[in-house]
Every structure is written in structure tokens, then in C-alpha cells.
Amino acid sequence: MKATGIIVEYNPFHNGHLLHLQEARKQTQADVVIAVMSGSFLQRGEPALLPKWERAQMAVDAGVDLVVELPFHFATQQAAIFANGAVEILDALGVQSIFFGSENGDANAFSSAAKILTEQDVPFKAAMRRFLDDKKNSYATAWNAAIHELAPDLTLDLAQPNNILGFHYARAIAEQGKAIEIATMARQNAAYHDENPTHHSIASATAIRTMLLGNDWKKVRQYVPDTTLRLLQKFRETHSFVSWDDFWPLLKYQLVTAPISQLQSTRGVSEGIENRLQQAALHATNFDEFLAATRTKRYSNARIKRTALQILAQQSETTTTQNYIRLLGMSTTGQRYLGRIKKNIALPIISTASKANPALIENDIRATKLYSFAPTLENQILRDFHTSPYRKNP
Amino acid sequence: MKATGIIVEYNPFHNGHLLHLQEARKQTQADVVIAVMSGSFLQRGEPALLPKWERAQMAVDAGVDLVVELPFHFATQQAAIFANGAVEILDALGVQSIFFGSENGDANAFSSAAKILTEQDVPFKAAMRRFLDDKKNSYATAWNAAIHELAPDLTLDLAQPNNILGFHYARAIAEQGKAIEIATMARQNAAYHDENPTHHSIASATAIRTMLLGNDWKKVRQYVPDTTLRLLQKFRETHSFVSWDDFWPLLKYQLVTAPISQLQSTRGVSEGIENRLQQAALHATNFDEFLAATRTKRYSNARIKRTALQILAQQSETTTTQNYIRLLGMSTTGQRYLGRIKKNIALPIISTASKANPALIENDIRATKLYSFAPTLENQILRDFHTSPYRKNP
Prior knowledge:
The structure is a homodimer.
Chain A: E1 3-8, H1 15-28, E2 32-38, H2 52-61, E3 66-70, H3 72-75, H4 79-92, E4 97-102, H5 107-119, H6 121-133, H7 139-150, H8 161-176, E5 181-186, H9 205-213, H10 217-223, H11 226-238, H12 248-257, H13 260-264, H14 273-283, H15 287-294, H16 301-312, E6 325-331, H17 332-341, E7 349-350, H18 358-371, H19 383-386, E8 390-392
Helix pairs in contact in A: 2-11, 4-8, 5-8, 6-7, 12-14, 12-16, 14-15
Subcellular location (chains A, B): Cytoplasm
Protein name (chains A, B): tRNA(Met) cytidine acetate ligase
Family (chains A, B): Belongs to the TmcAL family.
């Protein structure tokens, strides 16, 4: 059986994701599509709109064969670490290719860029440091400038969010020395942050979240599969959608009350950013005010949110970074595929957390407990511990 | 000028405290009465009903000459540490005596008991360990049993809460080798925890807090001086009284989200109590449920609350234990006295926190910021930093 891998957040699963899934199957001629999905918290340093279990079910109901969780450590950090964790999992699950959407759309551009950087690691890092010396440069700006200094002919625009992710997938494959092919499709119709969808059936997840938070179900219906719609509506009957606002009092408490030495040893905290965050927390009365007070040219909103999330989740520099495969959902095909390859998987595989090695999953269990502090999710504090993967049988 | 010291919490200041204050002045013939008062959090592991600034003003308005704060580290720990911190401060402020209320009422009984224990430290500790080996014994029970094994003729009942505190004052004076006399009065009419006052003007602070939380101002009026009543009413116009319930979501978050290694290195955490607290936090939906689930014969409610408070305030075993004198309020006499002795005070003295050595007061500033997480106190998050001591001039 031929497998391809996709790397997703599905926050929530929508028609654009469906197109991506169908293209993945078509272009790679895969029998099995495996999605590595972030859990309760996402790569931009935000909580997911709804729990991973509902999101995994959306994915399987829409045709994904296997949904596995990207552990918190990888899921909530910068693109390079995010990509490394996802590629390691997909390789362990035996995919021949990774398929992603990008602004560029040409797989060769990504392979070339990855190759240049892997071969010129030392001059790249030197250029990176030089651009970062200018305090006005954000990491993203410095990074893009350093790459284009090394490879002036590069056709890949690395200021585009999906190109960046795709590049990191290619880079992770090269660095880990994996025999995984890259396949990509040009994203159409909905740029990542588009607030106003123009296409008749495809909108960005950002736009759909806005519709959902505004209870505009009539509009939502237009942009998500029926299976997603039903799950969203069912969730919404008894719960609220989750946002950073739900965690603001806890973040403020943590920033104000934790000893400064503890903030400093939090993963991702450097350059004295802890002081900036702490000062902002003292004066802000909600998360938006906090963000507005902390943002600078140097620190993008995403970087601030990621750092705030590491502090909220009390991730220290010594928190485990071990990777593993946590099953969240499976189609019949996914189950059959898993049965075939099970004996040859290089990473620990976890079906139900209560039966897993506690040390291995402790950090993700903590993260899901934290997620349950969102109002209306109180009863889910132990859900992650006892829930079995969603199985869709015909 | 002759000074006497009293050690108080004033939660809130009531007629019994007034009697104690007047007796202190009379019996010790002091010109100056100095009160060392706990700040935002108290020795039984609870937040104070209202901020230290209002409580200090109540004290000065009722006749105390000097109110200084017992730093968080001392104020929120077991009686021995509490007493050590308070005695050190009072000695630095030049008191000739310490005056306290007790069930016993005989100063000699306290001095004798302290002497026995100081002289027989090794056999006492051995006896203590022996009694603690029986897991059914609480610390208080083991401690009382060990003392009476060493001193069978002791007339001091060390199961009584005020006798225990008085004993620790005497013990701290002996251990620190201070030339401070002990004076005591027998407490009358209101045992510490009496819920139903019988005396016409004296009720326990516990009973008064119940009246206050029930908004029974007519009854409160009977048991507190007018100056207290006015301050309580003024506070209540724009704020709520503070209780553990206000901090429950933060405590739960901290118990659930902090790495277990961090909980273990919290001051006062031992014998695996962190697991018991963590488990209880997962299932409890309010602080009372949490307390009910954690209490055992071994762990009294007070011990659990003190431990929970150390976790909430993120106090590690390495948090500073340095003592200092923080001025909260002064009468004219108190100001004159302070002016005279100022040059000979062995501890750092702090009038306004914003002008103090930040490292010295950091822990108490954090505690007061934490206190401001109580609803209606949000605006007071920086109050401790900028407030000057209350001065009562004629």
C-alpha cells in the first residue's frame, strides 16, 4: 500500500482542506493518506477552536485514512521544529511522499532551497546573525534576507507562509536523510489570512473561525463539508469555541506570579523578552491589549503568542522532546495499513494514553488538561487520558 | 521610650484586639505599642479578608503606634517560622517585651516550656520522629505528645492555638538569645474558632468574618470599633471581601499544569503530598471540595491550606528568607519613636517599596500582585509598590 503524508491543523477542516486531501491522493497515487495534526494548541501559539478529537473525526469523516497527533513540543514551536517533528512521524509511518499546498506550487523549488541551506549551513548562520544584529529585523525578515543572500536566483518567495512551511518540510527531510518525495499544489482562492472569501466554496480557516465566532452558520455551511458542519454544530450545542481570551487570566497570573528565573528558563524565552511580557501583563486587562503592548518589529504577533503559550503551559528548556505516534482517528483503510506496518514503526505508538508510558506522554497530557480550563470544557480535563482513537467503519 | 511588641493578623481588627492592645500598654507600661502584622496572606494559609493597608489603618486608628509587615515567607508558614520572623523584627525595633493573649495566661509557663525544649533539642527531635512514624498523627499531635513526654509536669496545654503561638514566641526569643520579656493575658469570652459569640462586645475574628460575608452589618457593629466599621464599610462599597474561592481557578491551574518537579521543590511540600493535591485538583470544582478531598488525619486543613498557598504563590525552597521591616502605619508617637531609634535598627527598613532594594522585597511584591487577582482588586496590582505608610496625625 502506497502512503502519502500531509501536515495539518484542521482548525477546522474545510473545503480547501478537502481539495488538498483529494489532490494529495490523486497526485501521489496513494492508497493511504496520513495526516499529522497539531493537538490542543497550534503552531501560531494559539489554542485550537475545538478539541483534537472532534477535529480528528472531521478529518476521517472527510476521507483522511489516519490522523496522528503532533506532540505539543513540536506543534507549538517555530516552523523548523514543527516540520522536524512532523517529518519524523510521517517517515516512521512509512510515507513515500509529503504533499502540501504552497504559494509557489513547484516541488523542485523547495528541494533546491533545502539543498542550498543544508550545504551552506555555516555561511547561512553567519548571515542570519548579521541580519538579526539590526534590532528592527524580525526573525522572519532576517531569515528571508539571509537565504536570498546565499541563493540570489532562488525562485521561492520565502515571505509567503505556506512556502515557508513547505521549505521546512523539505529541509527536515534533507537533514534527517529520509527518502521521502515532495509534492505540492499551488494554493488557490484563499490566502492564509483572507478575511473576506471571494470564492464560492473555499475560504481560509481564519475567515471560517470569524464566521463561527459570529454564529454565522449559514455562511459557514458554504465553506465546510457537511461532516464538519455537523460536528461543529454538535460541539457548539454544549460548548463554546476556544480562544486565547479563555486563558488570559491564567497567563497573566503566570507572568505576574512566577519567579523571573522560571520565566527565563521557559522554552523560547530569550533576549529579555520575559520582562516585556511581564510588564505588559501587569497593565493589560485582556489578551488583545497584552498583544498590542508587546508587539514590536522584532517580535511578530506569532512569536509573542508562541512564547506566551510556552509560559502558560509551563514548558521549560528541559521539558521532554521525545517524539511518538499518538493515534487520533482511522478509516478502515487506515486501520488495515497500520496493521500491516505496525511491527516496523520506529517510534513508540500510542492508542490509549492510560496504557502508555506516563513519562512519554506526560507533557501532552498536561497540555490537554490545560486546554480544559477553557469555559465549558471543565469536564474534559481527563478526556485525553481515556479516549480511544476515532474509528470510521463502513 | 519603652516599647512592647504584639504579633497580629487583624483579619479584621475587632474589640478583642482592642482589649489586647490596651492590656499590652497597661501591663507592660509601654509608651509605644508595635504590631507586626501579616500582609496579604495569613498563617493559616488563607488570604486576608481585605488588604493590609486597610488593616494597618484599622490598627493605627484604634491606637497601635507602629504597624510593620511580617514578610510573606514568615507570615504563611508553620508557627515556629512565623514566630522567628516576628521576634526578629520586634527585637530590631527595640521592644522590651512581647505581649500576647493565651489560653494559659501565665508568662512563666511559656518561658519554662521554651527552656526545656531549647535544652533538650536532641531528645525532643527523636521523640517527634517517633510520634510521626505513626502516620495517623498530625504534626500538631506528635509535637504536643513529644513535649509532654519530655516535660510531664508542664502546665501548658499545647493543644490550644494561642498557647502554641505564645510558646513559639518564647522559643524564638530563647533561640535567638534576645533580651525580650514575655507578658501574656488570659484570653476571655471568645475562643479562636467560636462561631457563635456569647459575650456582648467580643467575638472571634472567625465569627466576624462570617457576619461580614453575610453582610450582617448590624451584628458586626457590635463587635468592632467604629474606626474598623467605617473602613470595612468603605472597602465593601467598591470591593468584595477576599477568600480562597477567589484563587481556586489559579490554584487548580498551577496544580494541574506545573511540572511535578516544580511542585516537589515548592516550600513545605514533602512526603508526596503534591500527588494528593494534584489528584484532588483534577476532580474538585471548588476550593471546599478540594480541601475535603485532601484532608487526612496526618494533614490538617491548615497544613493543606499553607501548602496550597505556597504552590499558588510559587514559593520554591530557594525563595529568599531575608527579613526586613516594612512600615505600614504609624501614629504620631510611632513616628517619633521610629525617628529616635532609626539609626540603630539591625534590619533593612522600607517605607515605600518603589525606593527599596528590589531583590529584598520582590517576593512580597509578587504576593501582593497575586492578591490582586481577587475579583474587584484588579486595579490594586501595583498598589503595594507605590503606597506610603498610613500616618495618623492628631
